Amino acid sequence: MATDQLSVIFGALADPTRRAILARLADGPATVNELAEPFAITLPAISKHLKVLERAGLISRGREKQWRPCRLEAEPLREATEWMSRYRQFWESSFDKLDAHLRTILKGPEQ
Amino acid sequence: MATDQLSVIFGALADPTRRAILARLADGPATVNELAEPFAITLPAISKHLKVLERAGLISRGREKQWRPCRLEAEPLREATEWMSRYRQFWESSFDKLDAHLRTILKGPEQ
DNA sequence: GTGGTAGTTTACCGACTAGCTAATTAACCG
DNA sequence: CGGTTAATTAGCTAGTCGGTAAACTACCAC
């Protein structure tokens, strides 16, 4: 994967396990074991995912006794959303097209 | 990469060449050679990128004589933005934190 | 037909990724 | 100290990714 910040962010989001970890962290900080619990993968695999998320700036990690609590950092999501917002006009216009299409359908078959 | 739709979308966006292609397509449809022109990579590489973008639903392709014009399809970007919007409160609140931090700094060093 | 232009497919390569197991570090508890 | 829990590191495998060169398809013009 490329090393520019947006690529790292999108790359981190391109994995359902990592997105699920972010979703869990939206409910508050959690330890690595707590984050791992819902998944059928080993702790080292989770550890790697956390490193990817950390590199993307999507989480930060503290130190408390023997635990290393993770917390959500959403700033990169703001950046990513900002990048996408440039295209908003396009999906809004395609929504308009869908809307028009639905209207046509709801008018019933032309005969 | 995982095969769920969001993963495919984010995976497609996790490459600067592909994001540049989308940016170019925001100015209107283009042929493969037109899209390839700004890049120092071969045509087959561009062809692969286009396939990734197509699989993510980010572009669609027509057929006109010997050309296969590409056009932007922004609907997946809407989906991705929608997914991220769940976290908006977090980046807004961390902006608040930054704001507060800056205020603290601007008050000058406490002594 | 020949030849040129537009683009894709195939086969290959090196780098990276996601997963595993096993070993290791770090911090606590008794 | 030894034992337990929390988490990371190391080393491996299998698969994917971004790129290439070479061959192929499709269309147009002569």
From TrEMBL, chains A, B:
It comes from the Bacteria. CDD domains: HTH_ARSR (cd00090). GO terms for molecular function: DNA-binding transcription factor activity. InterPro entries: ArsR-like_HTH (IPR011991), HTH_ArsR_DNA-bd_dom (IPR001845), WH-like_DNA-bd_sf (IPR036388), WH_DNA-bd_sf (IPR036390). Residues 1-92 form the HTH arsR-type domain. This is Transcriptional regulator. It comes from Paractinoplanes tereljensis.
